[in-house]
Write a structure and sequence with these properties.
Helix content: over 70%
Radius of gyration: 21 Å
Oligomer: single chain
Strand content: under 5%
Number of helices: 9
Order of helices and strands: HHHHHHHHH
Length: 223
């Protein structure tokens, strides 16, 4: 438990460091500006929020498509593997077709995961999780897994020995992710943008934060 807490603190420190440096698209603005300026910012941010939700929704759409493509490729790999990679034929064909289909499935999976977790404000959290293990070699594999989350799946899940690679198949996952994007980008975030335009900034920020949290948890829960 102590190691897990330490790892969480390290992860938080990395994220804070990244925020301190600011992302490329972040703009530093005076929080103590006059009321008219703050009101104008709220209107601007509300209008931009519609566009941001639209683009994040499209990114999620690609991510869901990529995960579905990954599962289809993995299905093809396992089906072909019954012919070219069973205990008899593996000594002749060495699974040349099935293994390459599995590699393609892995590529689609990684693309889908990066698309889903590289959007909706989840970028820093996703990009810094993997560095925790480098900071603390005393962490157990379970602690690291808890921090990194279930995605992306281990490559061996795709190419490890076995006739059927069952861990790859979560048939509903792409549709759950897509559904979460529809709720978040089609309803919650646009509503937050409207609230922001109406100068209800705190309420809008809270709704935005909850929407982002919902999307991230939905993606992780689906796997």
């Amino acid at each position: 438990m102590k190691r897990a807490w330490l790892a969480a603190v390290c992860c938080l420190g990395l994220a804070n460091a990244a925020f301190a440096e600011r992302l490329d698209w972040e703009v530093e603005e005076d929080p103590n500006a006059s009321a008219p300026v703050l009101a104008a910012r709220n209107v601007r941010d509300g209008l931009l929020g519609f566009g941001d939700a639209y683009f994040d929704g499209n990114t999620a759409l690609f991510g869901a498509f990529a995960l579905l493509a990954s599962q289809l490729c993995m299905g093809a790999s396992d089906a072909i593997g019954l012919v070219d990679d069973n205990p008899v034929t593996q000594h002749v064909t060495k699974g040349i077709l099935s293994k390459n289909a599995a590699k393609i499935a892995l590529l689609w999976h990684n693309a889908g995961v990066d698309s889903l977790l590289g959007s909706h404000g989840l970028e820093v959290e996703h990009w810094t999780r993997g560095r925790v293990a480098e900071l603390n070699p005393l962490l157990s594999e379970e602690d690291v897994h808890d921090i990194e989350g279930p995605l992306p799946l281990d490559p061996l899940v795709f190419v490890g020995e076995g006739l059927i690679h069952t861990q790859v198949y979560r048939p509903l996952a792409p549709f759950v992710d897509l559904g979460a994007a529809v709720v978040v980008d089609g309803a919650l975030r646009p509503a937050a943008s409207v609230l922001r335009i109406l100068q209800m900034k705190k309420t809008a920020d809270s709704l935005d934060e909850k929407a982002t949290h919902f999307f991230g948890r939905a993606v992780e829960w689906s796997w």
